[in-house]
Amino acid sequence: MGTKFPGKLYPLLLLLPTFVVIALFIYYPMYQTINMSLYKSLFMGLRQIYVGIENYIELFSSTAYRQSLVRSFTFAGCVVALSMTISFLMAILANQKVRFGRLYRTALIWPYALSPAVAGSIFLFIFNPSVGVLNYLLQTTFGIRPDWISNSTLAFTMVVIAAVWKQLGYNIVFFLAALQNVPGDIVEAADIDGANAIQRYWKVIIPLLSPTSFFLLTMNLIYAFFDTFGLVDVMTRGGPVDATNTLIYNLYRDAFQYSRTGFAAAQSIMLFGIVTIVMIVQLRLGNRTVYYQND
Hints:
295 residues, mainly alpha, MetI-like fold, 13 helices, 2 strands, globular
């Protein structure tokens, strides 16, 4: 029997604290951002004048913003593809029954515990052209010392590698849990039918992991678009020549360095809309290939 409440308003009263928190920390800031995007800042933000949709028109006509948009999608695609592929392979290795297996799994998960700023500092030291560990090894082995900071392509690659490494632990946790919950009898049946290791993973295990993979695809996209700000800020500050200036970092620079709060607010709304559209498309297409096991 279901629980009976002593009145129709009683359930709403219980939910009132949740409604208040959501209104204060989600809907009110969203309203303020939309309202701010209709104004332009003057005199270092000391004065605001109403300009309507002028900020949005400037966004659509800005070549720099369009380049940042393309760069962000390229960055997100690289980070998502690499982090999910590498973490899945590492989860397969971590799922093997070996001595000190728990210690290895803990070590694999450890990078996710670091903040983006700390992770960025670590990789900035590794890739430092003068005193970096990587360039020392490259100089010793191949006689080359790439300039990871000043070269646009190398700087972009450096940030992608750092972002992938930072996200590996998160992905491994879910892939490892999903692998450990794959029914053994199904895998054994495929083995009896003559499937080799690659065929068992491709035809049996990966389809069974589709709910986890779909969830991680969503979370990794959100991470690539929003949570990599700390890495970019510490490692390159959007440079060189805007090579790593993603949408989220471009928004930060306009808001806090150039005091263009209205223009930054318009970028925030645009970024929210872009990610929302990407998520909707992903949900529409992804659910067609997701397999949910029936009990």
